[in-house]
């Protein structure tokens, strides 16, 4: 996320006129005036045409656009590019650039979106240069938003990259079909274009331990680089601060960030297009509990996007920027004995860096901890390592160093003490009483708080000005007897509904997906979504109903839904019955898992109806959609379809796998899953 320097967006003051106007000046002034009048008159029109939107937003910064010039000017050899959505790849890139210092090599981090990537071939102009790519994968093996242009360039426009030295670290999650697809593609494509791979592709798996994958990859990568450059490693990982604390004592309160994502006061001057760097503040118009019983809280929210020009399709995701729990922030302030209202900036010690601050500055510690920093995810091992120096009690310090080490014992300790115990930074501070780091260093080390995605539970055909969300509030007890609460869902749960005089808003933007109803509205649709996995199907059903109203043919539409108890958490029961009555939903199969001795899941019902389903799939071109839990449900359902193909299609297992793969390639087997 580019927190580009705030000042950079403020235009230069106009030069004052000197003396009388000459004839030439008058002509010039007239032309400018004419252009201005034209612009004022026609500006509105231009803004209404979506294609022009991008052009009318101001360029973010005045910084150096040429990568090579910048590297030359600032004496860098290593450039680390990141393709990142939620900040992990960006954080890893920062750490790699920081590591380089230990070897006397100067590195820089670069957002591919901010540079002209066609300059990559010119890296050969810089002696001993290396391009490192930290690339995350999303969706169906897609690049992150900020790597989209780079990806297109690689596919189409890329030039000869002979002489360019590179390496790739891929970030992904094994539970997804296209594991690390983007990292693998960049690695393969750069080689095809003639570049030299100086170190093997690293494969990071978020489902196991991404941090560990990264650390062991870079522990082997750096010696290889040293050999490449002929330099000596300085050994010990030293703790180098990247940012310097500046405390503001005399500052205009208008210049302080109070939770805006990027541009100062952007929340008051809402301007489209809205995206990750410029979210829209959508008023909450409905916030209702969906379940009738049980100890959980499942909710239905509606966000008003009137006037925002935001467009969405059923199947897209809405991203929401949450705010942390004030109680946790207060406790951190209390335990570290600091005044949270102190106004500060953390300024990058590397003045050439594009990233001046780790989060929008100047701000207060309270704002940073409430809005910008992730204070509830388990701290990574590098954070434990860096913080260890502030544990005054030697056994506690040793405990922290051990958890950060790569020994099997250290890894095991980190796994159990941090991950399995779900300790957040506050729990770490509480359980290590001698650990009292300066709050500014803590703020430097915490990752950025990232947006949460929700599958949109409405159709824009029916609700063009409203986005519906169906979510379950996360709350669980850890083995240290703490109650951990999910950041976004608990924040959303307590969102009051906007009414006259009271405004309650959610910073959001839309992320497009590939999860779409069949192009031909007559094709049969099979929807499988237990629990909150029902969300996108509410949008699909609304859309199907709308198609019918328009007189369009709508194919057979069957739903497989599951919940715990019929009279507790049967979400949208009334709405589903309405759709059935109207003939939109041909068939609703519901698995109540806990209403009888033996568990019944959606896949049991799929098996029961296998003949009918197979006919829809194999002879009637049905489209299959699966939404919800990625960890178990999606995999179990996929196995059920393999069984079906084997049994009813007379296939061997490998053929069945191929069969489903082909459906996926044709867009007839789509998943919208998370865990
Ligand atoms: C593409 C996509 C679509 C999504 N759509 C929806 C949707 O439609 N509806 C919906 O409700 N969610 C959806 N999610 C999930 C959603 O984005 C959030 O992850 C979820 O709401 C939790 O966010 P949170 O901030 O409340 O929790 P966080 O503060 O992020 O905490 C979540 C973490 O808590 C831990 N945790 C949670 N439960 C337990 C437990 N029982 N035991 C131990 N640890 C636990 C896990 O480590 C988990 O990662 C979607 C996710 C993606 C990626
Ligand atoms: N982090 C975790 O440990 C964890 C655990 C569960 C869910 N989740 C997440 O929460 C999301 C949605 O949860 P939710 O509250 O909406 O769902 P939910 O209400 O917990 O579950 C919906 C239904 O799915 C059933 N189910 C459980 N395992 C299944 C499987 N392997 N195949 C098919 N059905 C199965 C459940 O049965 P039973 O519950 O009776 O078995 C229940 O009837 C999931 O996508 C998942 O990512 C996380
Ligand atoms: C919605 C979503 C989709 C994902 N899709 C994939 C995928 O297709 N393949 C994969 O290997 N990893 C996938 N991942 C995992 C991410 O790539 C991984 O968590 C990565 O560390 C994120 O990096 P970032 O924080 O820099 O964005 C997905 C994660 C999410 C949340
Ligand atoms: C790339 O690496 C090779 C050796 O592996 C080296 O000879 C060459 O100079 C390097 N290229 C650049 C541009 O640094
Ligand atoms: C990916 O990794 C995260 C982090 O460890 C894990 O919680 C999640 O279950 C994995 N799967 C998905 C689909 O995010």
From TrEMBL:
Positions bound to NADP(+): 296, 532, 593-594, 599-603, 636
Keyword tags: Endoplasmic reticulum, FAD, Flavoprotein, FMN, Membrane, NADP, Oxidoreductase, Transmembrane, Transmembrane helix
Catalytic activity: 2 oxidized [cytochrome P450] + NADPH = 2 reduced [cytochrome P450] + NADP(+) + H(+)
Domain FAD-binding FR-type: 277-518
Location relative to the cell: Endoplasmic reticulum membrane
A GO cellular-component term linked to this record: cytosol
Sequence positions that bind FAD: 452-455, 470-472, 476, 486-489, 674
Binding site for FMN: 84-89, 136-139, 171-180, 206
Record domain Flavodoxin-like: where: 78-222
EC number: 1.6.2.4
Enzyme class, UniProt record, top EC level: oxidoreductase
Transmembrane regions listed in the UniProt entry: 20-41
Cofactor(s) listed: FAD; FMN
Membrane topology: Single-pass membrane protein
Main location as per UniProt: endoplasmic reticulum
CDD domains, per database record: CYPOR
Function: This enzyme is required for electron transfer from NADP to cytochrome P450 in microsomes. It can also provide electron transfer to heme oxygenase and cytochrome B5.
Name used for this protein in its record: NADPH--cytochrome P450 reductase
Lineage: Eukaryota, Metazoa, Chordata, Craniata, Vertebrata
Gene: POR
